[in-house]
Amino acid sequence: MTDNIVREGDNILIYALKGKSWLVKAQHGAKLHTHLGIIELSNLIGREYGEILKTTLAAEVAILRPNIVDYVMKSARSTQIVYPKDIGFIVMETGLCPGASVVEAGTGSGVLTTALASFVRPNGHIYSYEIRAEFVEVARRNLARAGVEEWVTIKNKDASLGFDEKEVDVAIVDVGDPCTLAEPAYNALKGSGSFAAILPTVNQAEKLNSTLRSLGFVNIHTVELMLRKMEVREGMTRPSTRMVAHTAYLMFARKTSAKKEALHVSQ
Fold it and tell me: Which class in CATH covers the domain with range 11-66?
């Protein structure tokens, strides 16, 4: 990123000053049609990020450089996505950082994968497993759009049969039956490695909790995050009447050799 100029082919976030936004590509011959008017996308080329311009209906919009959250929320979706509020907590709880090696079961649309790849670069890598070929293609397009495909290897394989990778830092599971991935994740992780699972129901959480304990995982804990915006206006600030409430239960754990040591003592 050498300057702040929009180049042809750049992805641009067009942000309406009332909050609506669109993720587009700056290119000749293309137009963005909105309820606020039309924008000639070729007119973006050569402008500076942060400029304000007007649509054909004189509505003001800002030209912004997309952040990873913009790619996440505007990805093409073939499945339910993992929301930013949950992604951020997963990153913190697992200690995900540049250089980390990660196995992921359940690529889906590649939304979580996109975010993870942005955190592990420039020398980390995500190995993501997806059993459905049609999801793989959607995920690859989303990764390419965000410019992070270099740090991701997608495998059209059933991760419950085992991960190819060993001694990884983090294992993340987002599948229908997460218990089938607990042991493969244990086998792939290095000692003290972090495990995370995205769970839609409490029944799955109960079952997975017991399975992780039996394998020798420790520090097993589950959370649910809710996010509510504030309507901030001078003298009239209040909580929003709408909120992002339940999206998933998040379960975390750390790998130890407790099970192996117990077996050794009993022998």
Answer: alpha beta
Please give the torsion angle defined by the CA atoms of residues 173, 175, 180 and 184, in that order, rounded to the nearest 10 degrees: -30
Residue type, 204: Q
Instruction: Locate the domains of the chain by residue range.
Output: 11-66, 70-266
pTM of the model: 0.86
* Strand 60-64, strand 217-224: pairing: unpaired
% of residues, the chain, pLDDT over 90: 82
Confidence band for 266, pLDDT divided at 50, 70 and 90: very low
Is 208 within 8 Å of 244 (Cβ atoms)?
no
End-to-end CA distance of the chain: 59
Greatest alpha-carbon pair distance for the chain in Å reads: 79
**CATH number of this structure's domain 70-266, picked from the four choices 1.10.260.40, 1.10.357.10, 3.40.50.150, 3.40.50.360:** 3.40.50.150
Residues 6+ apart with CB under 8 A from 101: 120, 124, 125, 127, 165, 167, 168, 169, 170
Q: How many residues does the chain have?
A: 267
Residue 64 in tokens: 């912004």
Choose the weakest-confidence range: 16-20, 105-109, 229-233: 16-20
Question: What integer pLDDT is reported at residue 159 of this predicted model?
Answer: 97
Q: Per-residue pLDDT for 15 more than 90? A: yes
